[in-house]
Amino acid sequence: MLPDLRTSDDSETLADCLSMLAISYNRLGAFNLALEAQQECYELDLKSGDPANISSSLNNLAGIYLTLENYDEAERLIREAISYEEKLGESAALAVRYGMACDILLKKEKIDEAISYAEKALKMDEEAGRTAQAAVRKSQLAEAYIEAGRLQEAEPLLNEASAIFSAMNNLHSLSVCKHQIGIIQAKRGDFSASAHSLREALTLTRQTGNLLLQRNISQELGVVLKDTDPRSAIAYLQDAVALTDSIYNQESARRMAELRISSQIQEKEQELANKEKEIGNRRIWLILLTLAVVLLAALLVLSHRALSLRKKNEEMMKKANDIKDKLLLLGNTPHGESENEDIASMIDTLKDLGSNAPDKALTSREMDIARLCCEGLQNKEIADRLNISTRTVETHKNNIFRKLEINSTAELVSLMEKRKNL
User: Fold this and answer.
1) What is the model's pLDDT at position 272?
2) What is the CATH number assigned to the segment(s) 169-263?
3) How far apart are the first and last CA of the chain?
4) Is there a contact between 154 and 180 (Cβ–Cβ < 8 Å)?
5) Which of 3.40.50.720, 1.10.10.10, 3.40.50.2300, 1.10.260.40 would CATH assign to domain 359-422?
6) Where are the alpha helices (DSSP H) in 29-149?
7) Whole-model pTM above 0.70?
8) For the chain, domain boundaries
9) Quick one: residue 335, left, alpha or beta (phi over 0 = left, psi -120 to 50 = alpha)?
10) Residue 173, helix vs strand vs coil
11) Integer Cα distance of 326 and 345 in angstroms
12) pLDDT digits (tens, 9 = 90+) for 67-120
């Protein structure tokens, strides 16, 4: 599908497909392929110039670079996305950008700035009544508070978020909150409560299948239980080692899959390039033939118009000569009733000549717009009446002014009234 879209003019659909492909690659762990797809999507969004799409692509790119631990590039991208979104003023998207900025800045140990972004994101989601999103922001803000040592402020936020995630059956987010609560309790020295919270988090994480989080929680449990339950601590640390091996093996398999997929994509692109090369000459000939047909048609139209104008001019000259002959005869005719009848006839003929004369090359659409202007309609009303855009009406009016050598609608109305009275 992508090769076909790349050869079409439907860049918007291609960008949507690339964005979805990047998300799929990201979930599969094929981060380099996800980065390639999202980068191509971003370049298409830049060409289209839609700031909302550009902001979304920048946010997605920042998330991929965050996963790849390229925090400097992730920060640059998310700040650019925020600058776009702040101008748009769409609170839901802006809250997402602020949340992403919080995660990235925490990795760069810019704690105060991360807290500021998380607080703004939480305020936006709460004011808009976005309960689920607000719970995520509370978890993010709590993480920033933990890094800043503000444990008393972090724990209530996590308890509120946990209640929401539990009601929504969002096991992954709930396990993250339980993990954070366990860390706070361990920092306070309450190792029994910490072990309980971490075990809850580990049970939830095993259901979601997140190996990385399972490993981190197992390591935390090993540290928390080392003094009170050394045997369990050793078992959890052994689990952490085994999980590390599994993650490494999965990462290797994913990289091999990336190479296979990348190779397949290159083969398809090469095949498409070969096909395009084969039909290149045919396409050129088709274009040349089309141009020839268009030029021939244009010549025929111009010839027809020239003949029509010539015929009209000949008819008008003939009538003018007839009038001239009549005027000469009048000069030799005695004054009386017949003279008045001949004069009236010539006046009628002159009126006919005026009505049949070309209207300074105004098109039928321009004539329609000129008449509606004389009726007192504004540009918007004319656009609605003719089912066209206001910009198109303005363009036609400019052409009318140029052709008739006038500068305003008032002059146009006056000129049309004079022609009507002829």
Assistant:
1) 65
2) 1.25.40.10
3) 65
4) yes
5) 1.10.10.10
6) 31-48, 51-67, 71-88, 91-107, 111-127, 131-147
7) no
8) 169-263, 315-357, 359-422
9) beta
10) helix
11) 10
12) 899 999 999 999 999 999 999 888 899 999 999 999 999 999 999 999 999 999
Q: How far apart are CA 19 and CA 21, in angstroms?
A: 5
Contact 28, 254 (CB under 8 A): yes
Residue 106 has φ and ψ, to the nearest 5°, of -65, -40
Please give the pLDDT value at position 322: 64
> Whats the size of the chain, residue-wise?
422
Task: Give the chain's radius of gyration (CA, Å).
Answer: 39
Q: 90-94, 274-278, 309-313 — which one is most confidently predicted on average?
A: 90-94
Do 94 and 79 touch, CB atoms closer than 8 A? no
CA 419 to chain centre: 50
- Please check whether residue 58 is in contact with residue 84, taking contact to mean a CB–CB distance below 8 angstroms: yes
pLDDT, one tens digit per residue, over 193-221 is: 999 999 999 999 999 888 888 899 999 89
- Say how far apart CA 81 and CA 62 lie, in whole Å: 9
Half-sphere exposure of 125 (CA within 13 A, CB side): 24
DSSP state of 110: -
142-168 b/e (C-beta count within 10 Å ≥ 16 → b): bbbbbeeeeeeebbebbebbbebbeee
Query: Whose CA is closest to 55, among 31, 28, 90?
Result: 90
Q: Return d(Cα 142, Cα 154) in angstroms, integer.
A: 4
